[in-house]
């Protein structure tokens, strides 16, 4: 943030320069005003498996450097389909030195329940899931088990059966951790806001979680947010179960935080905030100021939310992103 009061700016420069005088202040002032740069590992989603691999160069060109990791997903049609999609995805990233943030579906889209999972009915599938990752050299992957569980849009929605969700989450976490050679980090990852159930009501316990995360997209239904990006940003922080809550809740449990999915762009519901460099800059500042293990930008034109900034359609956001996260 730039100092607006010239007397205050001069005083700050004097302090940093050892009282050398305002005439020698410009370099010191620049050092004072330079915002801290995020040091958290930067991940990105450019698409599933080989699609993401092939589209990654555009993001690298925009950013000016390589990211540290990529976000990955798995199918939910059948158990063999899920495991096959993980094998395919890991093969696509073979030989690429990116850490993986693997999203782990707890259930299939049809015919499975949280209660059956908590009772162990699906253990063998997660045992194989873990073995696939270890065999692919991805034993240090971050695992987003049942991500965005507080919403209604995934089959493992925690509001359907909160006790079973917690028990099942712990069960899956234990399977992955007990796999020979595993060094996985378990990520507990709600979506922003209360949604269908307050996330903290279904926290599975510190022993089952390594990282507390949040998915956050730049959208709002409030007229005041749409009118003023600074007001909108403050709401992203102070809204219940948003960034302020994430920081406090993680600190209470002694865990680092993560933002595996975040972005700005257009949404199918018309509430996306588009090319918003202020959001990008403030997110970078928040990441730099907090104990963030990793952050994943959603550089992908999904049908429900298009946050792609590497394609040339969001030049202001792309410039802000490069300034904050680039070389």
Question: Would you give an account of this structure?
Answer:
With 327 residues, this protein is an alpha/beta fold. The protein folds into 2 domains: 1-34, no CATH class; 37-325, Alpha-Beta Barrel (TIM Barrel), CATH 3.20.20.80. The chain has 12 helices and 11 strands. The chain has helices at 6-16, 26-33, 49-63, 79-92, 114-118, 123-135, 162-177, 223-227, 229-238, 243-252, 277-289, 315-325, and strands at residues 41-45, 69-72, 99-104, 142-145, 185-188, 211-213, 216-218, 257-264, 266-267, 292-298, 305-306. An 8-stranded parallel beta barrel has the order 1-2-3-4-5-6-8-10. Strands 9-11 form a two-stranded antiparallel sheet. Helix 7 links the parallel strand 4 (142-145) and strand 5. Helix 1 (6-16) crosses helix 2 and helix 11 (277-289) packs parallel to helix 12 (315-325). The chain is globular. The protein starts with 5 loop residues before the first helix and ends with a helix.
Keywords:
327 residues; alpha/beta; TIM Barrel; 2 domains; 8-stranded parallel β-barrel; two-stranded antiparallel ribbon; mannan endo-1,4-beta-mannosidase activity; signal; GH; glycosidase; hydrolase
Q: Could you tell me the strand content as a percent range?
A: 5-15%
Distance between the termini: 20 Å
Number of helices: 12
Radius of gyration: 21 Å
Could you give me the name of the CATH homologous superfamily of the largest domain? Glycosidases
What is the CATH domain class of the largest domain?
Answer: Alpha Beta
N to C succession of SSEs: HHEHEHEHHEHEEEHHHEEHEEH
Spatial strand arrangement across the major sheet: 1-2-3-4-5-6-8-10
Assign the CATH architecture of the largest domain: Alpha-Beta Barrel
Average pLDDT: 92
Low-pLDDT sequence parts: 1-31
Residue share in helices? 40-55%
GO molecular function, one term: mannan endo-1,4-beta-mannosidase activity
Protein name: GH26 domain-containing protein
Pfam families: Glyco_hydro_26
InterPro entries: GH, GH26_dom, Glyco_hydro_26
């Amino acid at each position: 943030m730039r100092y607006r009061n010239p007397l205050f700016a001069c005083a700050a420069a004097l302090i940093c320069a050892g009282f050398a005088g305002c005439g020698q202040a410009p370099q010191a002032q620049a050092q004072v005003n330079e915002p801290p740069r995020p040091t958290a590992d930067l991940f990105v989603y450019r698409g599933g498996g080989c699609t993401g691999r092939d589209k990654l160069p555009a993001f690298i060109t925009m950013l000016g450097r390589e990211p540290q990791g990529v976000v990955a997903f798995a199918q939910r049609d059948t158990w063999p389909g899920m495991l096959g999609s993980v094998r395919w995805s890991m093969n696509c990233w073979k030989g690429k030195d990116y850490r993986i943030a693997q999203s782990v579906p707890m259930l299939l889209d049809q015919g499975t329940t949280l209660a059956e999972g908590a009772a162990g009915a699906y253990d063998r599938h997660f045992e194989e899931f873990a073995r696939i990752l270890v065999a692919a050299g991805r034993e240090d992957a971050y695992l987003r088990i049942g991500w965005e569980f507080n919403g209604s849009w995934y089959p493992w929605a925690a509001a359907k059966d909160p006790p079973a969700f917690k028990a099942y989450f712990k069960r899956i976490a234990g399977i992955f951790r007990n796999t020979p050679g595993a060094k996985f980090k378990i990520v507990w990852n709600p979506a922003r806001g209360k949604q269908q159930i307050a996330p903290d009501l279904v926290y599975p316990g510190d022993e089952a979680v390594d990282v507390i995360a949040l998915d956050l997209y730049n959208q709002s239904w409030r007229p005041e947010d749409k009118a003023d990006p600074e007001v909108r940003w403050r709401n992203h922080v102070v809204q219940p179960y948003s960034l302020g809550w994430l920081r406090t809740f993680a600190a209470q449990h002694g865990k680092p935080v993560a933002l595996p999915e975040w972005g700005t762009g257009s949404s199918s519901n018309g509430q996306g905030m588009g090319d918003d460099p202020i959001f990008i800059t403030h997110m970078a500042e928040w990441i730099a100021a907090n104990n963030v293990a990793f952050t994943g930008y959603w550089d992908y034109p999904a049908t429900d939310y298009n946050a792609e900034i590497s394609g040339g359609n969001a030049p202001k956001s792309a410039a802000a992103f490069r300034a904050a996260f680039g070389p």
